[in-house]
Each structure stands twice: as structure tokens, then as C-alpha cells.
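Posting this for the archive.
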Amino acid sequence: MPSLTEAIAETLPEVLVGATDWCTHPADLDLTRIGGTKNPALDRILALAPDLVIANEEENRAPDLDALRTAGVPVLVTEVRGVPQAFRELERVLTACGASGRPRWLDEAERAWSAPTPAGPGGTTAVVPIWRRPWMVLGRATFAGDVLARLGVRNLFEDHPGRYPRIPLDELLDAAPDLVVLPDEPYRFTAVDGPEAFPGLPCALLSGRHLTWYGPSLAEAPRVLGEALRAAHR
């Protein structure tokens, strides 16, 4: 999980022995790569003989985690559906990895989210695509949805029964959002790939790391995301 890898690397770099292929922060991260979250190389993980594997209930598959447990490797599974839960889980992970206290960046992140500045007029609504071909959006109970809500932007599909539902483009347009939020991950939306599908609607191109990662990036996320959202309203 890239955000958890970054959190551990920032706090206890000496304890990390492996990371997924998608773990990109910090930039100088030099570890054994163990595949993706959905297709980890279990033999490579076992060869590292870790004392603990950190996983996430959304990103990692239960059969892979069960296989590690069966092989005698302890696994800590995180669950993060909102900002307060992210802070609790980060503290739990760092403690399990041997941290003797809370790192400064975690305190700074909590302060940054204690009263973030609204990013737009009250009642601003948005659709938040995370993929195209097919179009998929944020649905219910997502970390990114909670991040946006705390910045004053309501996800129009927050009550959808699915967490990442497939919604046809015409239904996204019919929802009549005030704003379209286009992050650069997991799909890399850009100024020339995404906004053209929503003619006449303001589009906010956001850093996926600040919208969806829970780690050191949380400290600057309210400012970075707020600036991008406000710019889209102008």
C-alpha cells in the first residue's frame, strides 16, 4: 500500500524490507519489490522473512493474506473509510512497527484537518470519476469522499450502494454537478483526457496522492486540494 509504505519510510525507514511495485514515495525508496497489491509475489515476501506484513482490506485480497498467515507471517490489516479513521490506523501501524511515539508529521496532519478551509461555496456538489472506459466514480463510504466533504464538496454518488460504481457518462451529466473532480490516479486524468467529456462543467484536476493517500501527504492535502478546487470555481 503506497501511502502506508510512505508513512513507515518517513518514520521508521530501517524496518522496511519490501514494498509493492506501486510504492513511489519517498522518491529514493530502495527496497525489494513484491508485485502489486492485487497480485503480490508471495514467494518473494516469504523469502524476506518479515516479522509483519502491513495490508489493507480494500487493496489486498483475502486469499493472499490467508496464505501469508498460513505460512506463519503475522499480518496487520488496515481499514480506512474516512480522515479520522486514517489517523487512528496510521498510529496503529506505526506502533506495530516499533514507533515509541507519534511522529511530528502525524500531529501536523491532524492539525491541518482540524478545521480545513472550505474549497468552494456552501453546498458545492461533484461527481468524482476514478476511471473511464468504463466510467467509474466514487460511491459510498470512501476515504476520498470524506476528504472532499471536509473541504465542502459533496459527492453526488455518496449514497450509491456501491463504493466504486460504474455509471454511464450520460448519467453523470444528468446528475448536474457543480463540479467534476478528476484525480490523476488510479486513472491518470489530465487537461486533455477527461474534461472534454464534461462540456460546460468546471473540472478540478487533483493530485491523487493528496486525495486518496493517507500518510505524510495528509499534512499538506487541505492546502493542495483546496487550491485546485478553488481554481476550478473561478
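The longest strand covers residues 179-183. Strands lie at 18-19, 32-33, 53-56, 75-78, 124-127, 129-131, 136-137, 153-155, 179-183, 203-206.
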